[in-house]
Design brief:
The chain is mainly β and about 50 residues long. The protein has a domain of about 30 residues. It is about 0% helix and about 50% strand. It is built from no helices and three strands. It is elongated. The chain starts with 9 loop residues before the first strand and ends in an 8-residue tail after the last strand.
């Protein structure tokens, strides 16, 4: 989930699926922090 804030800046997105059925999703937030989210797609379905 993206941060809720007006005038937010998000950059450098990446979506990296791995062989173990996980998807690593990252982006840079306001040039200060890196957000990392880990999702499972082991059932073969893309997360909503």
């Amino acid at each position: 989930m993206l941060e809720d804030e007006s005038h937010s800046e998000f950059s450098s997105p990446a979506v990296i699926p791995t062989q173990d059925g996980l998807v690593h999703i990252t982006h840079r937030y306001r040039r200060e922090k890196i957000k990392h989210v880990l999702r499972s797609i082991s059932d073969g379905k893309w997360p909503k």
